[in-house]
């Protein structure tokens, strides 16, 4: 089994606050890895560290055997990413925005249309990005991540702001990608039902610590053993987080 | 070259080119109108005709240029922060320092165009309106180069400042403060004040001679390089947090 992304005791501290605390992830090649956690758990910070947007305080990570910052350019060539909110040039159209990324990635011109079509934005490609609705901006951000069909995708809350149809479309798209061109996806979302439908592996983060990592069936087995409701991901997730929060409260009282 | 072409595409609809070209046109128009209206008064000053042409008109042209540089530098980074596009750039296999350098080159090239345009106007005035035989092309070219180089520290400094603040009003405020404090201190002879980039830019405007001051020229070059180096270092080393 080949892990395409591995992290070793990844830690990020901001003065007195530890956002990510010794997280060791193992993401299999060709899998969809659902990265779950409540708000402020450290999901986005972990993803930002993998993309070099934030420096690590401690630990290390390897992406396809390469390391930051020495292999920054090679790593980023292999990753399509979408972090927190869409990033775009408000003064350019959707198509022009993608064309900027296309030129940086040295891709053929046809890749812009391909990406627009993948996210269902082809008829709005010539509209200024600042005039897009939130959902359209979200799709544009996703199109930017999918441009050139990169082997690794890091998607942080990609369905935020989308309507139910949009969520369904993006979910189907994300689910189809590993089969379509054998990519690996690290995806975070609060929509646990969505993750349950698409993820092969799950990582659960709370207060910067990784509480669980493994396959969905392992999570179900662990939940049953702990006498948690194991009927769906949402219940299992809530039980694990609640248990951890209670333990933290007890620790704090002591 | 590829990076520069990409950067030029990104400038589309930002108004950076428009602002600087407008400054060039306004500066040239000001020179024509001012000399047309005040010709007799200006030529009656106890100065050589070339000094009158170059120093007496430069004050307002310099103010226009200064505001053009401040606004253009703010706008060239505003587009990166507005839709959070800078975050995307940090996630792409591209050198952020390379992008910074391209922005510096674009502003420099546009500003060179502005200065050329304004000096073409001065050349025309000099050839047609100065007393016969008093126009010296060499003096005009030297002064054009001098005024361009003494403006570069402000350009380099403003690009550095605007690259560090997401809110455009902060670099704009720093630019205006720089202008006001520069105006207040420009006539001082204290050499220490030359570390203030706006004072350097104001120096040719408060001088009575069109002859370059080599001390100011050397300080200009040093400051331009220092601000550029700091900007490149920050773009390369500081992460998007």
Structure overview:
- Chain A: Belongs to the ABC transporter superfamily.
- The complex is a heterodimer of chains A (254) and B (241).
- Helices cover 41% and strands 24% of the residues of chain A.
- Chain A has one domain: Rossmann fold (3-Layer(aba) Sandwich).
- The model of chain A has no long low-confidence stretch (mean pLDDT 89).
- Chain A is of the alpha/beta class.
- Chain A contains nine helices and ten strands.
- Chain B is mainly α and 241 residues long.
- Chain B has one domain.
- Chain B is 79% helix and 0% strand.
- Chain B contains nine helices and no strands.
- In chain B, helix 3 (49-82) runs antiparallel to helix 5, helix 3 (49-82) packs parallel to helix 6 and helix 3 packs antiparallel against helix 7.
- The longest helix of chain B has 34 residues, at 49-82.
- At the A-B interface, helix 2 and helix 3 of A face helix 1, helix 3 and helix 4 of B.
Order of helices and strands of chain A: EEEEHEHEHHHEHEHEEHH
Please identify, by name, the CATH architecture of chain A: 3-Layer(aba) Sandwich
Number of domains of chain B: 1
The backbone outline of chain A, from C-alpha atoms, is: globular
Q: Identify the biggest protein-protein contact and residues per side.
A: A-B, 31 and 26 residues
Q: State the CATH class of chain A.
A: Alpha Beta
Beta-strand segment tally of chain A: 10
Mean pLDDT of chain A: 89
Query: Tell me about the biggest sheet of chain A?
Result: 6 strands, mixed
Strand content of chain B: under 5%
Structural class of chain A: alpha/beta
How many strands in all of chain B? 0
Describe the structure concisely for a colleague.
Chain A contains 9 helices and 10 strands. Chain A has 254 residues and is α/β, with parallel strands linked by helices.
């Amino acid at each position: 089994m080949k892990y395409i992304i591995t992290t070793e005791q990844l830690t990020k501290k901001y003065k007195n606050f530890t956002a990510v605390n010794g997280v060791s992830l193992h993401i299999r090649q060709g899998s969809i890895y659902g990265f779950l956690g409540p708000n402020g758990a450290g999901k986005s910070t972990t993803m930002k560290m993998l993309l070099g947007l934030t420096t690590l305080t401690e630990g290390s990570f390897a992406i396809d055997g390469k390391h930051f910052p020495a292999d920054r350019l090679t790593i980023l060539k292999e990753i399509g990413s979408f972090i927190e909110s869409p990033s775009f040039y408000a003064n350019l159209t959707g198509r022009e925005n993608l064309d900027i990324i296309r030129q940086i990635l040295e891709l053929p011109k046809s890749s812009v249309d391909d990406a627009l079509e993948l996210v269902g934005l082809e008829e709005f490609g010539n509209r200024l990005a600042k005039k897009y609705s939130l959902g359209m901006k979200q799709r544009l951000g996703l199109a930017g991540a999918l441009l050139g069909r990169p082997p690794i995708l890091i998607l942080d809350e990609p369905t935020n702001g989308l309507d139910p149809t949009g969520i369904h479309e993006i979910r189907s798209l994300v689910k189809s990608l590993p089969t379509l061109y054998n990519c690996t996806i690290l995806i975070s979302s609060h929509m646990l039902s969505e993750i349950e439908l698409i993820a092969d592996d799950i990582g659960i983060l709370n207060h910067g610590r990784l509480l669980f990592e493994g396959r969905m069936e392992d999570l179900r087995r662990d939940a049953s053993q702990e006498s948690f409701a194991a009927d769906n991901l949402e219940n299992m997730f809530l039980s694990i987080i609640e248990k951890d929060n209670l333990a933290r409260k007890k620790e704090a009282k002591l | 070259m590829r990076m520069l072409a990409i950067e030029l595409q990104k400038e589309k609809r930002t108004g950076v080119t428009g602002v600087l070209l407008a400054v060039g046109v306004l500066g040239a128009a000001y020179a024509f109108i001012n000399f047309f209206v005040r010709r007799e008064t200006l030529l009656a000053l106890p100065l050589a005709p070339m000094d009158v042409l170059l120093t007496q008109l430069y004050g307002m042209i310099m103010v226009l240029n200064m505001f053009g540089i401040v606004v253009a530098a703010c706008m060239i980074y505003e587009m990166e922060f507005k839709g959070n596009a800078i975050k995307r750039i940090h996630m792409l296999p591209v050198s952020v320092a390379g992008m910074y350098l391209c922005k510096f080159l674009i502003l420099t090239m546009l500003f060179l165009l502005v200065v050329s345009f304004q000096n073409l106007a001065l050349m025309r005035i000099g050839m047609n309106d100065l007393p016969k035989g008093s126009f010296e092309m060499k003096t005009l070219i030297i002064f054009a180069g001098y005024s361009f180089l003494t403006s570069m520290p402000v350009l380099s400094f403003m690009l550095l400042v605007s690259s560090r603040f997401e809110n455009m009003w902060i670099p704009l405020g720093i630019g205006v403060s720089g202008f006001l404090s520069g105006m207040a201190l420009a006539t001082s002879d204290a050499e220490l004040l030359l570390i203030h980039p706006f004072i350097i830019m104001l120096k040719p405007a408060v001088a009575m001679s069109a002859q370059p001051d080599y001390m100011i020229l050397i300080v200009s070059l040093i400051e331009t390089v220092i601000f550029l180096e700091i900007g490149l270092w920050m773009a390369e080393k500081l992460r998007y947090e």
